[in-house]
């Protein structure tokens, strides 16, 4: 693997952990270092850190809060 790619991966703990979990990316980056952006995107998808994932988590939290509020109101009445 190219030195600059390796240093970039080592500087980011999330990418380093993902590389340990998915060793096929090590081989892929060694052969095609220009695939670094695809590697980052795959790591974000794996750890569910993309914007759609975050929006979904917020929506689920709001839905849970709404359910709790409705239960609270039902118990109060």
Automatic annotation (TrEMBL):
It holds the Pfam family YlbE. The lineage of its organism: Bacteria, Bacillati, Bacillota, Bacilli, Bacillales. This is YlbE-like family protein. It comes from Geobacillus jurassicus. It comes from the Bacteria. InterPro entries: YlbE.
